[in-house]
Amino acid sequence: MFTGIIEAVGEVADIHMKDGDMQLTLRTGKLALSDVKLGDSIAVNGVCLTAVQLPGDGFVADVSRETLAHTRFESLKVGEPVNLEKALMPTSRLGGHLVSGHVDGLGEVVERHDDARSIRFTLKAPAELSRYIAHKGSITVDGVSLTVNAVKGDSFELNIVPHTAQETIMEHYQSGRQVHLEVDLIARYLERLLTGSVTSEGYAQPSISEGVSLEKLAEYGFMSRR
C-alpha cells in the first residue's frame, strides 16, 4: 500500500525488453534506499513494482505483460522523469489516501491553464471509471493523491499547487498526455457491497437497483444508526 505522497522524482535509466516483457532500471534521485531490500515494493508513476536488483543509485524491476497492457510503460523513454514512492509503513503518516499501486486505467490530459500560482488540469477518464470519480473525492494520478475539484461526465478537474508541481512530474503535463489513474478504494468496495452477488455462503447481497439509502449505509457499517 501507498499514500499517494510522492517522495522523489526519479529517472528512467534503462529499458530492456526481455522475453516478451520489460526490465526497467530507474535512478531514484533523492529517494533514500537504505531501508529498501530486494523484494520490496516501490510505486513508479503509481504502479507498484518489485525491486529485483539494487545497484546503488536506484533499482531494477520486472514489468509483466499484464502491467504493460494496462499502463503507458511501453511508451517510456530513457531519461524520462517518474514519480517514486516507497511502500507505506505502519508508522507512516497517511498524508494522502490509501493507494494500492494497481492502475485502473489510462486517463488523458485535455486542458491545462495557470490559475494564479496553481495549475489547473482537466482530465478525461475511461467511461468505465468515471462513476467512481466524485466532486471533492480522492483520485490517484501517476501515483499522486489528489482531490477532484469538479466532475462533468467522464471529465474531471484538478488544481495543482506549486509544491505538488515542483515535487512531481505534473509540471511537465501537456494536453494529450496519458496518465495512470487509480480510483478510490472505498468507492470500489462500496460498489461491490451494494451491487452484490451470490457469496461463498450462498446468499445474495443487495442489488444496486434497490437504491442506496441511509438505512442501507448504516446496515453495512458505513455510518452509525440513529
Could you explain the architecture of this structure?
By secondary structure, the chain is mainly β. The chain is 13% helix and 36% strand. It contains 4 helices and 13 strands. The chain has helices spanning 65-70, 162-167, 185-195, 214-219; strands at residues 8-18, 21-27, 41-44, 47-53, 58-63, 81-86, 105-115, 118-124, 138-141, 144-147, 150-152, 155-160, 178-183. Strands 10-9-13-7-8-12-11 form a 7-stranded antiparallel beta sheet. A 6-stranded antiparallel beta barrel has the order 1-2-5-4-3-6. The two termini are 34 Å apart. 28% of the residues are buried. The model is unreliable at 202-209 (pLDDT under 50).
SS elements, strand count: 13
Strands across the major sheet, in which order?
10-9-13-7-8-12-11
Q: Could you report the average pLDDT, rounded to the nearest whole number?
A: 88
SSE order: EEEEEHEEEEEEEHEHH
The proportion of residues forming helix, as a percent range, comes to: 10-25%
Strand residue percentage? 35-45%
Determine the structural class based on helices, strands and strand pairing.
Answer: mainly beta
Task: Give the CA-based shape.
Answer: globular
Sketch the major β-sheet. Answer: 7 strands, antiparallel
Number of helices: 4
The parts where pLDDT drops under 50 for at least 5 residues are: 202-209
- What is the C-alpha radius of gyration, as a whole number of Å? 19 Å
Distance between the termini: 34 Å
